[in-house]
Amino acid sequence: MYSIILPTYNERDNLPLLVWMIDKYLGAANIQYEIVIVDDGSPDGTQEAAKQLAKIYSEDRIVLRPRPRKLGLGTAYLHGLKHAKGDHVILMDADLSHHPKFIPQMVAKMRSGSFDIVTGSRYEGEGCGVYGWDLRRKVISRVPIS
């Protein structure tokens, strides 16, 4: 089983579409999964949307593990890892910048060899690029930080 960790902050509008796409692509590929939603106290109703999604898709499939306030992306992933039940973990952003249609390809790549890590890139192969990003974000994405 795969645990997909989705940190959220003000993603009420994106979350239903993202969960639907994950279910569509992983269901078609017969990949077992859970989605661990780590919400950092979003004031826009993200947690309520997640609760509704858990009712629709089941609480075994949609696992809400909220935090009281915005504590940062890295710690949100760590919080999600503590609650993940899967044998493998997928880290995604909930802002729709990571398209779920690529997950089955990444799972197939992992299964084709003895890979511990498989990662996607916006700049290689079928990567989605950086459409709509401002210059600052493009530079941050390209320039290695040491």
TrEMBL record:
One of its GO terms (cellular component) is endoplasmic reticulum membrane. Residues 3-134 form the Glycosyltransferase 2-like domain. Its EC number is 2.4.1.83. GO terms for molecular function: dolichyl-phosphate beta-D-mannosyltransferase activity. The keyword Transferase applies. Keywords: Glycosyltransferase, Transferase. One of its GO terms (biological process) is protein O-linked glycosylation via mannose. InterPro entries: DPM1-like, Glyco_trans_2-like, Nucleotide-diphossugar_trans. The keyword Zinc-finger does not apply. Belongs to the glycosyltransferase 2 family. This is Dolichol-phosphate mannosyltransferase subunit 1. It comes from Macrostomum lignano.
